Amino acid sequence: MPNTDQGSQFTSNAFTQTVIGKDIRLSMDSRGRALDNLFIERFWRSLKYEDVYLKGYQSISELRAGLTEYFYFYNNERFHQSLNYKTPAEVYFN
After folding, report:
1. Contact yes or no for 80/88 (Cβ under 8 A)
2. Closest Cα to residue 18, out of 30, 28, 9?
């Protein structure tokens, strides 16, 4: 089930009818719940600016390999200010 916010691109008749027409259930976040996505939005921003935009991948296979490397780096090597300068892996496994 896709989950979207309530931006105009996701509430338009064209979008909702296309999704519903394919027999897909649609879920939307409640109004005013933008902070629910704060952590994942920060992650996507980091991924884009620290990896994707810098490397300009030319193929899907390059992208997959690069994302695999970045995910490892992000979770195991990159220190996060919000985690008191620990890695997510350190916080999760300790």
Report:
1. yes
2. 9
Encode pLDDT of 18-60 as tens digits: 777 777 776 665 555 556 677 788 888 999 999 999 999 999 9
CA 71/CA 47 separation, integer angstroms: 9
Distance CA 9, CA 4 (A): 10
In one-letter notation, the amino acid at residue 52 is V
**SS3 sequence, 7-22?**
CHHHHCHHHHHHHHHC
CB 15 within 8 A of CB 9: yes
pTM, rounded to two decimals: 0.63
Bridge-partner residues for 42, per DSSP?
Answer: none
